[in-house]
Design a protein that fits this description.
The protein folds into two domains: 97 residues, no CATH class; 107 residues, Jelly Rolls, CATH 2.60.120.10. The protein is 24% helix and 36% strand. The chain is built from five helices and 14 strands. Strands 7, 8, 9, 10, 11, 12, 13 and 14 form an eight-stranded antiparallel sheet that branches. Strands 1-3 form a two-stranded parallel sheet. Strands 2-4 form a two-stranded parallel sheet. A hairpin with a 5-residue loop joins strand 5 and strand 6. The two termini are 44 Å apart.
């Protein structure tokens, strides 16, 4: 991931007697970092020195993410927060932060808060999806159930994603889908219906349809 260097990093290295800071194509230098380097007589070089036998290995992805976040906090007056969001979002989409979330959630499929009255809050950005068996291993369909009988609930609810595929489905109960992202297509009796973000779709028990999406669709569903 990107490595951020700000003025405070340069000043810290100057105190350590460093005169050269080694960078690569994944390094981001803030304008104040460049000014500080000139003032301290420090130069930036893309030719990193050869590692020695006693050097420690590069930090893990999770450690790198934490380090980047801490650096960003130190330079919060110099960096666009969208840059941090984009970098972490890319790592998350590639699955590189999965280990970090596993340690946070404690091996569970999502993080949630509970109250003795039965209230439950599920943190949506921690939900880990499982593959849904559609009968075709190449289908990209994933889901995660977040509410069920274990919560003392008579209905089930969760999230589902469908990406560039279509599959047949027979509803074994009443099902309701609220589209959050992308496009959902539903084929029934030879007719194709389309649902966009903000739309809700209801299916009666026993309905035989074909779910699909020409892009990547994400929906919240509830069944009863």
């Amino acid at each position: 991931m990107k490595r951020l260097i700000c003025a405070k990093d340069v000043e810290a290295l100057e105190k350590q007697g460093e005169k050269v800071i080694y960078i690569d194509k994944d390094t981001i230098l803030t304008p104040s970092a460049k000014d500080a380097a000139r003032a301290c007589g420090i130069t930036f070089s893309k030719e990193a020195p050869a590692p020695t036998a006693c050097e420690t290995p590069v930090a893990s992805v999770s450690e790198a993410a934490v380090s980047a976040t801490e650096s960003a906090k130190a330079c919060n007056d110099e960096i666009d927060t969208n840059m941090i969001y984009t970098a972490l979002k890319t790592l998350l989409e590639k699955g590189l932060l999965q280990g970090a979330f596993d340690s946070i959630v404690g091996g569970k499929p999502y993080a949630a808060e509970h109250d003795s009255c039965g209230l439950k809050i599920v943190r949506g950005n921690t939900v880990q999806y499982e593959a849904l068996d559609t009968g075709n291993p190449s289908d990209k369909v994933f889901y995660q159930e977040i509410i069920n009988k274990n919560d003392g609930c008579s209905m089930n609810a969760g999230f589902i994603t469908i990406e560039n595929c279509q599959f047949d489905w027979e509803c074994a109960c009443e099902e309701l889908y609220h589209i959050m992202e992308g496009t959902l297509t539903v084929t029934v009796n030879g007719k194709v219906y389309t649902a966009q973000p903000g739309d809700s779709v209801f299916f009666p028990n026993g309905a035989k349809v074909a779910f699909g999406s020409p892009n990547k669709m994400k929906a919240f569903y509830a069944t009863y």
